[in-house]
Amino acid sequence: MALAGSTSLLSFEPFGWWPLQFLALAYFFYQVGMGTSSRRGLWLGWAFGFGWSVAGMHWLYIAITRFGGLPAILGAIAIALLGLYMGLFGAFAGGVASWLRRKWSLPVSAFVLLVLPAVWGVSEWMRGWVFTGFPWAASGYAHNVSPLGGYAPIVGVYGLGVLAALCAGCLVMLTQRARWPAIGLFAAVMAAGFGLKHIAWTQETGQPLSVRLLQGDVAQDQKFDMAYLTDIVTRYQGMITAAPADLIATPETAIPVTPQQLAPEYLGSLQAFAAQTRSHLMIGIPTMDSPTRYGNSVIAFGPRSSSTLQPYRYDKHHLVPFGEFIPPGFRWFTDLMHIPLGDQTRGEALQAPFPIKDQLVLPNICYEDAFGEEIAAQLRNAPKPATLLLNVSNLAWYGESVAIPQHLQISQMRAIETGRPMLRSTNNGATAVIDGRGKVLQLLPFYERGVLAATVRGTEGLTPYVRAGNLAFLALSALMLAAAWFAGRRRVVGSADRASS
């Protein structure tokens, strides 16, 4: 079962074999359906979730061993322990579904087509927030380019997970007598998703912006080594001032030290460049408000900024466990790995976008864009919603692995959910321009220094997902469970009537 879960890796980028996910989930559902024991469902779900998680997140091993300094065996144990924990969400799906099957006396069709898909989606949603969440490799991300992607502006990535599981359930039903209804349902779900892709939920607005997205390709083992600081800051100063643009963006922590640790004239020279060329700069840099309060930030200034004005600042809100904040009792682990900037201050959940001409650019930092509900909330609750999204990242921690194309796929999902173009400026990939329908318009080669120059326009209007967040997905799941309960109730009543007659 763990092997079946691990095949899910191939459904995500860079492979993109999304139909394989239907087969993997169908096999899991079929095996759970072979018995009625909640314990059997729990263990099958745990094994499937373990394989899914270890395969989808194996690249963490590179950060832990190559850059964290852990011996290989300890790195492997750490990934296995993560898989053991992540498998609990699969166990929840299999165990709860099996328990509901017995409690509600469900027919096979209701169990496979309603309960298992709904509970699978809920388990993935829980994985996205329990203990701050780690929603990487949620099943819906495989469907940016599949027909199911049309549902993303309505129900978001977790709703896509429910619908993917429903399609898997239809495949399971091919082993039952109700083959043709299952085929019809599968075709209807896919056809409706394809049709929804042609709906424009948002519209272009304002003036187009010229943008330059920088990819410095700084080696991770040099990034926080002070021996290389002069080279790094000089490299980015040269890349920034090489040409003007309405927006020039650097990657996450492109400048690896706080403003207080830089030469006094460094940021001043960049402000002067912005004023002289009428450019707007958004720079990834750690910031420090006191010796014990520092964060992962983006600072920005434009033509009207001056040394007497406070520059725009966005502080990362959703921090990475162990990498950016230390869970209680685990300081020994972060100390063992010598993680720089490992105990940061969390930014506010709602932060203002940065104005450029008549566009509003809302940044997010690294894996913050894996939390679509938080980006949707920023758009929904802002006095004036952002028209463009900007992700700044550094994935050099994970070497030449699948982490980069997987992260690009996550950004594509956020663009589809919000109907907003997503710009990405990264250290070594994937630096890209993504339109409001999730299509990658321009992309720099990975693991190379370069600059992506493009022209983009923002969008206005709110998609249903931005308006409701995950409520639509939760309502869909609740409706499916209610329909399953009703089917089970009818079955019990029908059996009682036949017995009395």
What are the salient characteristics of this protein?
alpha/beta, six-stranded mixed β-sheet, 16 helices, 16% strand
Protein described:
By secondary structure, the chain is an alpha/beta fold. Helix content is 48%, strand content 16%. The strands form two sheets. It has a six-stranded mixed beta sheet. The two termini are 44 Å apart. The model has no long low-confidence stretch (mean pLDDT 92).
Low-confidence stretches: none
- C-alpha Rg, in Å? 24 Å
Question: Which of globular, elongated, flat, extended, rod-shaped describes the shape?
Answer: globular
**SS-derived structural category:** alpha/beta
The strand count comes to 12
Average pLDDT taken over every residue: 92
Task: Describe the structure concisely for a colleague.
With 501 residues, the chain is of the alpha/beta class. Helices cover 48% and strands 16% of the residues.
